[in-house]
Specification:
two-stranded antiparallel ribbon; Mitochondrial carrier fold; Solute carrier family 25 member 44 isoform X4; about 5% strand; mainly alpha; transport
């Protein structure tokens, strides 16, 4: 037996908004907690000179644990969680833009192209400044300067609390580069994510509209 079917396209008006935002944030947070240590390790490996600090991923993981404990693998995590806002803004912008464009065109390709590009523009405008701050926090190591900026400790020699570190990094970025310092790599991010999103969604809806067969 063959069952010919199309994949249903879910539009903005079909969504249960409460479930969508609550479950979306919860699921993204769970994923973020599990992968963040490797994001931190990747950032340090990319920035270090040669193999001056770490010889690889496993070596970095062990050395960070020994030096700073588990919390060392989550430096900048609290700040980075604010990128969850950009994820929700991305989907909201995408759906609302599709709804707006639908007044002028019923083509899924046109709606997806415009909405995908617009969603990435909004998301990256929020994400890039957060990433800049969180990446500087990722580079903080006890007693060593591994990035452009270094968080100052308390007079007793202990590190300042998480959001105190964030304020310190923000002040140093402002002092060194002004507001533009929070948007380093912004154009490169737009040139990466806008075309990707603008092309991905039309292909998604194209394939969703194709007839598929499954054997019973």
């Amino acid at each position: 037996m063959e069952d010919k079917r199309n994949i249903q396209i879910i539009e903005w008006e079909h969504l249960d908004k409460k479930k969508f935002y609550v479950f979306g944030v919860a699921m993204t947070m769970m994923i973020r907690v599990s992968v963040y240590p490797f994001t931190l390790i990747r950032t340090r490996l990319q920035v270090q000179k040669g193999k001056s600090l770490y010889h690889g991923t496993f070596d970095a993981f062990i050395k960070i644990l020994r030096a700073d404990g588990v919390t060392g693998l989550y430096r900048g995590f609290l700040v980075n969680t604010f990128t969850l806002i950009s994820g929700q803004c991305y989907v909201t912008t995408y759906e609302l833009t599709r709804k707006f464009v639908a007044d002028y065109s019923q083509s899924n390709t046109v709606k997806s192209l415009v909405a995908g590009g617009s969603a990435s523009l909004v998301a990256q405008s929020i994400t890039v400044p957060i990433d800049v701050v969180s990446q500087h926090l990722m580079m903080q190591r006890k007693g060593e300067k591994t990035g452009r900026f270094q968080v100052r400790g308390t007079p007793e020699g202990q590190g300042v609390v998480a959001f105190g570190q964030t304020k310190d990094i923000i002040r140093q970025i402002l002092r060194a580069d002004g507001l533009r310092g929070f948007y380093r790599g912004y154009v490169a991010s737009l040139l990466t994510y806008i075309p990707n999103s603008a092309v991905w969604w039309p292909f998604y809806h194209f394939y969703a509209g194709l007839p598929w067969w499954r054997s019973g």
